[in-house]
Amino acid sequence: MMNFNEFVKSPSAIASGHRLCAGCGAAVVGKLVTKALGENIVVANATGCLEVATTIYPYSAWKVPFIHNAFENAAATISGVESAYNSLKKQGKIKKDIKFVAFGGDGGTYDIGLQSLSGALERGHNFIYILYDNEAYMNTGIQRSSSTPFGANTTTSPSGSVIPGKIKNKKPITEIIAAHKIPYVAQASPSHYMDLIKKIEKAKSIEGPAFINIISPCVLGWKYPADKTIEMARLAVESNVWPLYEVIDGEKWILNNEPKNPIPVIDYLKEQGRFKHLFKKENKDMLKKIQDEVNHNFEMLKKKSEFSKDF
After folding, report:
1. CB 147 within 8 A of CB 153
2. How far is the C-alpha of 94 from the C-alpha of 40, rounded, in Å?
3. Chain centroid to CA 262: how far?
4. In 10 A of CB 45, how many CB atoms?
5. Closest among 169, 170, 190, 186 to 178, alpha carbons compared
6. What's the rounded Cα separation, in Å, for the pair 105 and 139?
7. I need a surface site. Which of 37, 137, 190, 306 has the fewest CB within 10 A?
8. Residue 80: which residues within 8 A CB-CB, separation 6 or more?
């Protein structure tokens, strides 16, 4: 594993001057991931915040080969490119080793793109899929997705007299991907960057598909100050809302972080405007429901995991 000084000096595949929002979690995730992967990569990116704000025609912030895909087919595209590379390498037309990476947000992963992702995983293509999870369709107006947490206010699950925000729980996408029994699945956070770097390096080293789900706070959609992105990600981990773990071959579960004194979930929620309605008297039962769900999910994760603190 590269040390921190080596990591800081390593190049990012994303240049400055892109048009992502100040404090955008996706920008942080993109730079951390590509710095850890190195230069010999090919990137496919489903439509979403990361893609539209880094490739505004006729400009591109990407310093590596980059393919824009519709929401539904980033995994299909990168698997096709990887297959072509294998053929060309077998023919002796390409000598160097290349790693193939797909980035997707909620639409490209949880919802619209899940079918092609599942197919690519089942076929066993050698690529890494990075989910930058900002928990709504931020690019098109902050609509709810199946990644949106219970109780969150969005433009299509507005808090008001009819509903108190989203009334369904967040889809457990990391567990769904782990059920494919691919070689490597992980959940990470930019706040715990050494853990994230190690997970990227593990994903790069294996043969076959790898999937890493990285929390990606969104200033606009979550409604917090632009300088608080890493703090939001850290609070998610420290409250057990976003546990850090790995799954090897769909069977070996490894918990990477267990806070000795986890903070109450309300300490995480109260920092975000999308949850402010939950602190009204009539919605106090929702806060308890959220805390109970987080406690239950973390206990279930502990039961099936061994513990290994890697960062």
Report:
1. no
2. 12
3. 22
4. 26
5. 186
6. 10
7. 306
8. none
Give how far Cα 2 sits from Cα of 30, 98, 194, 201, Å. 18, 19, 10, 9
Distance CA 293, CA 295 (A): 5
Centre a 10 Å sphere on the Cβ of residue 156 and count the other Cβ atoms it contains. 13
Cβ 88 vs Cβ 94: under 8 Å: yes
Long-range contacts of 139-144 (CB under 8 A, 24+ apart): 139/47, 139/48, 139/49, 139/52, 139/105, 139/107, 142/220, 142/221
Which segments of the chain have a pLDDT < 70? 309-311
Q: Which residues contact 302 (CB under 8 A, 6 or more apart)?
A: 255, 258
Question: Distance from CA of residue 174 to its chain's centroid?
Answer: 10
Contacts of 280 (CB under 8 A, 6+ apart): none
Domain 4-307's class?
alpha beta
Q: Determine contact, residues 146/113, Cβ cutoff 8 Å.
A: no
Task: Give the CA distances from residue 98 to residues 29, 76, 167, 205, in Å, rounded to whole numbers and listed in that order.
Answer: 21, 18, 43, 12
Residues in Cβ contact with 180 at an 8 Å cutoff, skipping those fewer than 6 apart: 118, 121, 122, 209, 250
Domain ranges for the chain: 4-307
Q: What is the pLDDT of residue 264?
A: 98
Do residues 42 and 36 touch, judged by C-beta distance below 8 A?
A: no
In contact, 131 and 212? CB cutoff 8 Å? yes
- Report strand pairing: 66-69 vs 41-46: parallel
Q: What is the pLDDT of residue 310?
A: 57
Tokens coding 145? 């997705």
Beta strands in 181-230 (DSSP E): 184-188, 210-215
Structure confidence at residue 114 (pLDDT): 97
> Encoding tokens for residue 40?
């010999």
Question: Whole-prediction pTM value?
Answer: 0.96
H/E stretch holding 192:
none
